[in-house]
Amino acid sequence: MSLLSRVSNAMQRIAPLSLAALEWDNVGILLEAAKPRPDAKRVLLTIDLTTTVLAEALEDPSVGVIVSYHPPIFSAWKSLSMGNLKQNLVLQCAANGVSIYSPHTSLDSCANGVNDWLASLIGPGTVTPITPAQPDRTGGQENVGEGRILQLAEPKPLSTIIGEIKKGLKLEHIRVARAPCHASDEQKLIERIAICAGSGASVLGPVTADLYFTGEMSHHDVLAAVAKDTSCVLAEHTNTERGYLGHVLQGRLSKELEVDEFDGPVDVVVSRCDQDPILIE
């Protein structure tokens, strides 16, 4: 069995593609190299396929598959040229025998996925999906769907939760919009938290919660949240996703790939070059 087939089968067990937002997302095998690299037995995990991540992959002859959380092929293309950044990256992968797989929103919505991991940084408590998956799209998993609601076992001050998020995401700074009722820790405690990795306004906006935890929201979405006594914690888009690769996915994918170990061992590594483009200096 090819390395790409093994990765695709393993990822389907971890994050069934039926859980993705198929109405707009682009997930699964995005590129199957016509001539795969010989003897490639390494999978590179990244949030974004950038020029630096691509260089990292191509410099390592063992890398045969890139699992890029964000799909480098998203909207339809009518042509392929080296002058277009995304097309350039994909063409270089094809020319060098490296395939691409993207799980994106299926990995957000699955059991023990990105949103469950974010909730675990704050818990303990009860975790449920904001929008449960339809029964025919769960892929056999339970308690899955879009976003997460974390009902804390014990209410906490907002400052305590901010500290837990910083520690879990290994960040020195995050953006916070405090609703008037959370202006000080002596005021209302946080009990109910709505969570969505990445850009979460469309998922979180309709939800009644004490706190929204996501990567980014627009200025006006933040104002609307604060006006209804919901504070917001914004850690930047990919900072809410990247830590999951090393903390969870690397180990899970390695274990799932052992199912097909008769085809040889596979090494799963996390990109050293992948990072959020926005820094607070």
TrEMBL record:
UniProt GO MF annotations: metal ion binding
Keywords on record: Metal-binding
Top-level taxon in the UniProt lineage: Eukaryota
Positions bound to a divalent metal cation: 70, 108, 237, 241
InterPro entries in the cross-refs: DUF34/NIF3, DUF34/NIF3_sf
Pfam families: DUF34_NIF3 (PF01784)
GO cellular component labels: mitochondrion
Coiled-coil blocks: none
Family: Belongs to the GTP cyclohydrolase I type 2/NIF3 family.
NCBIfam families per the UniProt record, alphabetical: YbgI_SA1388
Name of the protein: NGG1p interacting factor 3
Lineage of the species this protein comes from: Eukaryota, Fungi, Fungi incertae sedis, Zoopagomycota, Kickxellomycotina
